[in-house]
């Protein structure tokens, strides 16, 4: 297993760092200022400013205030949002989280690290049960079916990591989870009938937790706005204060980091949620599917 470096995460681009850097870059360009002007305001090098704008290094609160002053930004709400974003990014970079012990997570490392400090997750899944709600056998069957691993030990590490993620749904400050899952994902025999019966039983159990809202999008909903792709909205602090969108494809992991993209997907999730069954009705449907198996 890979060991942790004390500098891990400080000199790499992070999702939150890129979003903060992008905001500061747009503010600078709107003022027609060069990186050299920002460097003078920070008593720093142009190279450091470039790293900040690319999300490669954390940024201190005094530096954010200095740049806002330079760029003529006096709106306290905007400044507070940038400060909150910087604070969350610094916390993310300092964390020597458990996920670093699982090289098999590969491109999921950044997502899992953000999930660990998030307050709310909203996820729409059209073909699989969300990772936070999977049983070990279901996760194992997905890994085998995916074909990414030939070594059984690697598959077991993947399953172990996925189960560790689920501790975020319990404890003193549990993650708030809103999940909408298509009915087809619940009828797909991942791992066979017994595995699916166990998986559906877990969904019924988790749905009783006060921090989990689980809905099913039924077949009879017809055409709906979530047919194009699955996605997860990761939120921090107050609702809407900071959202980033995560999407997985067969070849890459995609992060949508702008306010516009986040707001668009929040609205999309709300439309999908309105078309889904109410939680009690969803629970009855899950139980019916389980009995059919």
In the CATH hierarchy, the architecture of the largest domain is: 2-Layer Sandwich
Supply Rg. 21 Å
**Which outline best applies?**
elongated
Mean pLDDT: 86
- First-residue to last-residue Cα separation: 39 Å
Low-confidence stretches: 1-10
- What structural class do the secondary elements suggest? alpha/beta
Name the CATH superfamily assignment of the largest domain.
Answer: Endonuclease Chain A
- Number of β-strand runs: 6
Biggest sheet overview: 6 strands, mixed
Separate helix tally:
12
The structural domain count equals 2
* Fraction of helical residues: 40-55%
Write the layout of secondary structure elements.
Elements: H1 15-30, H2 35-42, H3 46-53, H4 61-70, H5 76-94, H6 109-117, E1 120-125, H7 136-146, H8 152-165, E2 176-182, H9 183-187, H10 193-206, E3 212-217, E4 231-236, E5 242-248, E6 253-256, H11 259-275, H12 279-292
Parallel strand pairs: 1-2, 2-3
Antiparallel strand pairs: 1-4, 4-5, 5-6
Helix pairs in contact: 1-5, 2-3, 2-4, 4-5, 7-8, 10-12
């Amino acid at each position: 297993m890979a060991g942790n470096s004390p500098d891990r995460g400080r000199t790499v681009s992070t999702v939150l760092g890129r979003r903060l850097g992008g905001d500061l870059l747009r503010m600078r360009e709107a003022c027609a200022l060069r990186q050299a002007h920002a460097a003078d305001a920070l008593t720093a090098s142009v190279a450091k400013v470039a790293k900040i704008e690319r999300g490669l290094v954390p940024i201190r609160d005094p530096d954010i205030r200095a740049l806002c002053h330079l760029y003529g930004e006096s709106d306290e709400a905007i400044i507070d949002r940038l400060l909150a974003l910087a604070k969350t990014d610094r916390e993310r970079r300092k964390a020597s989280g458990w996920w670093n012990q699982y090289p098999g997570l590969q491109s999921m490392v950044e997502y899992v690290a953000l999930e660990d400090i998030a307050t709310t997750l909203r996820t729409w899944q059209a073909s699989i049960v969300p990772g936070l709600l999977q049983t070990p056998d279901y996760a194992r069957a997905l890994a085998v079916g995916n074909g990414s691993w030939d070594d059984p030990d690697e598959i077991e590490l993947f399953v172990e990591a996925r189960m560790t993620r689920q501790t975020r749904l319990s404890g003193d400050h549990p993650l708030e989870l809103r999940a909408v899952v298509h009915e087809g994902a619940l009828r797909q025999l991942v791992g066979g009938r017994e595995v699916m019966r166990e998986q559906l039983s877990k969904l019924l159990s988790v749905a009783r937790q006060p921090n989990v809202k689980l809905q099913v999008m039924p077949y009879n909903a017809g055409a709906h706005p979530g047919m194009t792709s699955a996605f997860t909205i990761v939120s921090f602090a107050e609702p809407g204060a900071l959202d980033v969108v995560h999407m997985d494809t067969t070849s890459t992991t995609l992060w949508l980091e702008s306010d516009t993209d986040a707001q668009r997907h929040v609205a999309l999730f709300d439309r999908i949620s309105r078309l889904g069954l109410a939680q009690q009705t969803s629970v009855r449907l899950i139980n019916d599917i389980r009995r059919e198996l």
